[in-house]
Amino acid sequence: MMESKKYILTEKDIPTAWYNVLPDMPTKPRPILNPQTKQPFKEEELYPLFAKEVVKQELNTTDRWIEIPEEVREMYKIWRPTPLVRARGLEKLLDTPAHIYFKNESVSPVGSHKLNSAIPQAYYCKKEGVTNITTETGAGQWGAALSLAAKHFGLELAVYMVKVSYHQKPYRRSIMQTYGAQVIASPSMSTRAGRKMITDNPNYQGSLGMAISEAVELAMATPNCKYTLGSVLNHVSLHQTVIGLEAEKQMEMAGEYPDVVIGCFGGGSNFCGITYPFIRHNFSGERNARFIAAEPASCPKLTRGVFQYDFGDEAGYTPMIPMRTLGHNFSPANIHAGGLRYHGAGSVPSQLIEDGLIEAVDIPQLETFKAATMFAQSEGIIPAPESSHAISAAIREALKAKEEGVQKAILFNLSGHGLIDMASYDRYFAGDLTNYEIPEEELLKNTRDLEKLI
Amino acid sequence: MMESKKYILTEKDIPTAWYNVLPDMPTKPRPILNPQTKQPFKEEELYPLFAKEVVKQELNTTDRWIEIPEEVREMYKIWRPTPLVRARGLEKLLDTPAHIYFKNESVSPVGSHKLNSAIPQAYYCKKEGVTNITTETGAGQWGAALSLAAKHFGLELAVYMVKVSYHQKPYRRSIMQTYGAQVIASPSMSTRAGRKMITDNPNYQGSLGMAISEAVELAMATPNCKYTLGSVLNHVSLHQTVIGLEAEKQMEMAGEYPDVVIGCFGGGSNFCGITYPFIRHNFSGERNARFIAAEPASCPKLTRGVFQYDFGDEAGYTPMIPMRTLGHNFSPANIHAGGLRYHGAGSVPSQLIEDGLIEAVDIPQLETFKAATMFAQSEGIIPAPESSHAISAAIREALKAKEEGVQKAILFNLSGHGLIDMASYDRYFAGDLTNYEIPEEELLKNTRDLEKLI
Questions:
Q1: How large is the ipTM?
Q2: CB-based contact B422 A170, cutoff 8 Å
């Protein structure tokens, strides 16, 4: 089975600049708004919360290429460039004429793509004299990555980890602690937002939206402290474009151009990272690839959400973002893909899907674990439950190609491995997992009053 | 901190032959004996237990180079060649003039070097028409590797996993199950050896020696079934020499030759794998490097054992091997480096240490976790508890170099990552781990009657 072919780049091929998609977009996303004034945020209004440099990147709509600082590129060299793999084992198992490629971001020391943005975010904070940073984490992939980056740059880090994942994935909490970070289960009693939630709903198992509220609140209350975010915002996707830029070169080595590019979708960071560099050739008219965001059926903001201004967090502390959203109070089911349990999509992917430039599919949990097991047995790598959504979508496309008798090239991002998620696999094999069907009425009840927000 | 430099080879640099150390040894090890006849084993006497090709390799004392089959090399390409890394982060942290290099075997899909031998062993079984294989595993690294290789070649696999690790490391059990293997906690009720042990000692937490007995017994009782072993024997070390052969080329790229080469030591597979290709230049007189095997202080066969013929397993089913041993009934303490909980060393490393050609150090458990945490924070990779013994020995050497003001090149093998061992790290941080000091009398009580065996 495993005769998979790797396409390997050298350190010289690590990109020297990130690709900023904003200048090339046919319809620019609407601006993020200050919830107090309902006006577009000015740079300096965001400085209290974020490092200045990332604010500049966040609002930059003119520069197509943003130089990667040498210190960041040096750290990228620890594991980058990552391999592109032709998944011949999976192709054989599916008996498909399609060629399936995956970009293997699981080879980073923390096991996922998240380090691509953790490093520059920690770097810019350090460079601006910040001493403390805060963040949220779902499954713990982002938290683990930021813990390592914070240790490297000598920053103190507090991580709010969504309570359900804190208990489902204790090993990832331990990883953060091994790198020296403070990890707090969210909702917690350490913030106003957390205390209110616990008081109103003592059994609430948390969400990324809640954890963001707590991390923002702590950052605002701590001297010389900034908040950092692992997804959703433009600058995070910007940093993640190293994935797609490398993959573009590697697909050239393989002598193909992808007909379909697929990423799993929580807030958008890994999907945007692998797709933007390819989307730019659609914008320019050179190419006509399809782009598929794979989200959980139990948290389907892209396929079943509304397009409205919404908060990035539950308590309403963040800027208001034009999102495909289920509402910032949407409480996602306890699926094991903790990194995808988020109510909204970033402003850019939301605009792209609105304009029909990207597609989305929603995948039930059991299908993702079936796909994950097939992938593990045919390619040798046990995927993260999040990444398994991308694998599922790739398998659907490959089977469609077989049905239609068409050869096509499918590229997906393997955003992380699942070695820390084995308890989830155990529960799947034991038959303990469900799909969490959500009735329409339940799904959209938190979006009813969104238009009143602005 | 992390400015570590990687030395990367291409697929063309994957060795085409394994290095067989036996022809070059100044004193050949004494032969392994048939316990019934007390005579050296003939090839055909071992065929019922092992694949024929590995028996030939086991007893081959004449061919310096053994060709790697193309099917095996193809599978090696999934993750090989592995990186050699200059650990500048760790050097800085220690403020040492020494240059520290590590060969990163943790990048394999199962997270350790064990796949190097699992693949050829499964391949030879398949080629000879075998349908079922059995094995033992301690921490689960070998079992996980063999599960993947067995799935690839379509073999059914039963793994006896040492009971203490079965409970300490449930995730690694899940990994084996995800790859489709049967996993049984050892001692079990499924074999005579296991039943006897459970009857005599109901609370026994198992050992590699016991698990080997059960795997051998099941193999002998099952039609068309062979037993496979992850360490100790010559053919396993032979397969592992891909590590040292690649490292040799990579040290050349770095423009240095190691003054010291270090591996952790359970049965010997990863230590032998990284050292043999370098030892051959000592044998030829070209070089004069030192070689250090790092074993747990609680299972110190190399530093405190006797040199005697002994069994490879507790029940006495295996060939008799000339070993540095603590006795096949030695019951190792429940340290978290499950892969190092083994009573004896392979015949070749035993002979080499007897002849003063390699050295050994024994490291207390707490020192290994301290070293592991330093390594994780300075190099980004969380090491396996087994590999942390090698890191500890490397740190000792680097600090000695600092004391003496000498620049030297230290190379160690990072045999695996510790992402599945985070529960052990948790216990370390909580202060729950101890060093397990063993009094001399207790340590050697199982070696008293060994000479009566032959």
A1: 0.89
A2: yes
